[in-house]
Amino acid sequence: MNKNEFKQKLSSIKTAISVTGKRYRSIQIFGDSLEFVRENKTKSERISVTELYELFTKENPINISIAKSYISGRVQSPAVAILKELKSTGAKNISKNINPELQPIVENGKRKLPNEKVKDETRFFIGLSELLGMDYLLSKSIGKPINSSHIFLSNSFENYNFNKEVNDCYLQILTDLKSNYMFSSDSLSHHIDGVIINHPVLHSRIVEFDEEQHFTPARMDTIPHLQDILPDNYFSIFKKICNDKNYLNDYVLKKHRIKNKLDNVPKSFIEFVGWLEQSNEKSSGYICKKNGFEFFGGRIAQRAYYDCLRDTAHLSSKNSGFDIPLRFAKKKFEEIENTDFGLISMDRIKEIILEIMSNDYKMTIPIA
Hints:
The protein has 13 helices and 10 strands. Helices cover 37% and strands 13% of the residues. The strands form 3 sheets. Strands 1-2-3-4 form a 4-stranded antiparallel beta sheet. The protein has 2 domains: 3-88, no CATH class; 112-360, no CATH class. It is globular. The longest helix has 15 residues, at 298-312. Helix 7 packs antiparallel against helix 8. The two termini are 28 Å apart. It has helices spanning 3-10, 49-58, 64-67, 76-88, 120-132, 164-176, 217-226, 235-242, 245-255, 269-277, 298-312, 330-337, 346-360, and strands spanning 16-17, 23-30, 33-38, 44-48, 105-107, 110-112, 137-138, 194-199, 203-210, 326-329. It is of the alpha+beta class and 368 residues long.
């Protein structure tokens, strides 16, 4: 389902009811806004259609806690109610099955993508699955979602049974990220981009396709600590991207809906938070407070922390048999081809994946 089809189906919804029985009425679409009126209220409120579409296509299941990472303002409950109403009318959750629009088309014995706009992450995982073989790769991008039966990934680093060296590393990381250590024990397995399972060469490991939102001052502060306990397979590349002021201003901040620009790359995440607090930015799901990071900009710190948990998940005794993750930076593909990722052909995406595997990970994989 592309965005236009999603919007068309959404326009058929006139009322929705929350899990607590609250009713939302007078639902209408105006451009990129969905307007609604709460029960016993007369003033209409708005939800971004773009944010609704991102939540609908990226998450399953959908609840208010998850919606807070996508939906700006205090409208998460109506957003969830409306999307549940949409599903009940027959719309398929495309995180469970690859939408036909996203499936490669077979022509003359060759597979190619359709002309419609496809997410960069989806194109990457389609390419990777063609290289490895579908039997070895799990990813919601290719209709094979990940859950806690595949890999252990907890919200709290204390639940991994890490050794002292790794735990000490997290204490340093969380100090730099201004954490209050108030974490739940919720599973984060469903947030992983991809997992390779029992591949003859790559074995079992997490695979991440890192887009703009991952290259923040928060992520930058975690890397020196992680380099003390992990090999430098991708950290040097990531530090270089994090230190690119133009990329930070034009892509990273934009991805977080931050309108102001930085004069210089911050020396630390704490310095960045100070700048953010003085920048008069409006709060949104991209920069709001989060559990464990109760400050403006907390979502950015949380994302960096979650990246660390993926980086180190294989060091847990609960994930025996897993190796260090593979991370592919979207920006590296764009630098190699000198164009936007969306304009790179599928064949070339697969070639670059193999180049990165060979150059950065010193691994050659047989093509499925």
